[in-house]
Each structure stands twice: as structure tokens, then as C-alpha cells.
Amino acid sequence: MKSSVGAYMVQSGNPNLYGPVYLMKGNGPQDELEVYHTPQDVIFDIAAHYIPLPYHCSGTGHVVYRRHLYCHQHGTNLVTKFHLKKFEIIADLPLPGAGYSNTFPYSSGQNTDVDLAADELGE
């Protein structure tokens, strides 16, 4: 991974199984998700394929869970659920009162208004 900022995501579930690794470089706006077969492929920058997104994501707090990407849609207060196999938006959830476009940045100071997280069990 050449970028020092970004989102490194694996499918939640069984942490002992190697599955695809999803990578979104930078803190936004990004409209492409890189998919790697194994964590070792990330080290050697051997991407299996790329998934173009029909919108831009901001920040680094994205989540992959049950074949869906959840991310903060750039320039909005929306969290978007995108199906990684059907390549379609499943839902947009507005977060009333949530900051976006660096309204309430913390830590790195850029695009950190909305962060999502799930542990290895998806909780």
C-alpha cells in the first residue's frame, strides 16, 4: 500500500479465514475500491480487480460487511450501502445533524466527520 492514509477492510465473520481485502486509498473523495485476494497481495500491490463506485466516499471509516460497502458519501450527510456483487446502491441513510465536508474534523484534520466501524465478527 503506497498511500499512508486510507481504509483497509476485510469481510467480517471468521477472522481465521483469508478472504478478499478491500482497500480505498486516501481520505477522499474516492470512487474506486481495490480488491485483493489476500493480505500478502496488498503488500506486493497485486490487485485482483477494481470496483468503480457510482458516487464518491469521504474519510477512512468505511466498512465491508456481508458483501456490502458502507461509506460516508462525499459532500453529504448520507451513509451509503453498496452491494459489492450486484454493483448497485441498496440504500442511502441520512444522518441528521451529522457534519460533513470537514465541519467537525478531528485527528488528521481532513474528511473525518463520519466514521463507521465493525469488528471481525461484524458487531
Automatic annotation (TrEMBL):
UniProt main location, coarse = secreted
User: Any idea where the Olfactomedin-like domain is?
Assistant: 1-123
Protein's cellular compartments: Secreted
According to the lineage, what is the superkingdom? Eukaryota
**Can you supply a Gene Ontology BP term from the record?**
signal transduction
Q: Which UniProt keywords apply?
A: Secreted
The protein's name in its UniProt record: Noelin-2
User: Chaperone as a keyword?
Assistant: no
For this record, the Gene Ontology CC terms, alphabetical, are: extracellular space
Species = Elysia marginata
